[in-house]
Specification:
The structure is a single chain. The protein has one domain. It is mainly beta. It is built from two helices and 14 strands, in the order E-E-H-H-E-E-E-E-E-E-E-E-E-E-E-E. The chain has helices at 34-37, 42-62, and strands at residues 3-14, 19-30, 64-67, 70-72, 75-83, 90-99, 106-112, 116-117, 121-127, 133-138, 142-146, 150-155, 160-161, 164-170.
Length: 171
């Protein structure tokens, strides 16, 4: 199977109840049409989706995610396969969630993972509740804060990432 990663996007949505939801989207180039061939193979499709979900959850277990200095368990709940207009362009989407207690005042999200080089371009969007305000960001790549509560971060292929993210926000 020769599937090449092209691009990724992550959309984090945080609500005041403490639910963190992430939609993670990977775009690939699949010259051999491996993923497209699964459309006609229901059993093969099911096995591959289960494999992808297991791989993502194993990856998530290797990360250490803390909110307000307490470790939280992050889980991928769903995986979906689609195509961007061509059998060569599969898209794999994950729904990832965790729940934690947030407090009135400052809250701190931290994620520790292995350092490396970006294999593809990607963007990360954080959307906080309307009454929240981002007060501190420590993340690899470039980022911009919009309307005090939305952050857009960008990494480009080949750029190093340091394996640590921190977002401090006030509720």
């Amino acid at each position: 199977m020769s599937v090449e990663p092209l691009h990724a996007q992550a959309f984090f949505r945080v609500d005041t109840s403490g639910l963190f939801s992430e939609i993670l989207i990977f775009d690939y180039y699949d010259n051999a049409h491996y993923y497209y061939s699964l459309i006609e193979d229901e059993d093969g499709y099911g096995r591959e989706m289960e494999r992808l979900l297991n791989v993502m959850n194993e990856f998530l277990r290797e990360e250490k995610v803390l909110v307000n200095d307490e470790e939280v368990g992050v889980e991928a709940l769903l995986v979906d396969l689609d195509f961007r207009g061509s059998p060569e362009l599969p898209t794999i989407t994950y729904l990832i969630e965790f729940y934690t207690k947030l407090c009135s005042g400052l809250n701190k999200y931290e994620c520790h993972y292995e350092m490396g080089l970006a294999e593809y371009d990607y963007e990360v969007y954080w959307i906080l509740p309307s009454e929240a305000r981002i007060v501190e960001v420590e993340i690899s790549g470039e980022y911009e804060i919009l309307d005090d509560r939305i952050m857009v971060a960008k990494m480009r292929r080949g750029e190093p990432y340091n394996g640590y993210e921190k977002i401090v926000f006030k509720l």
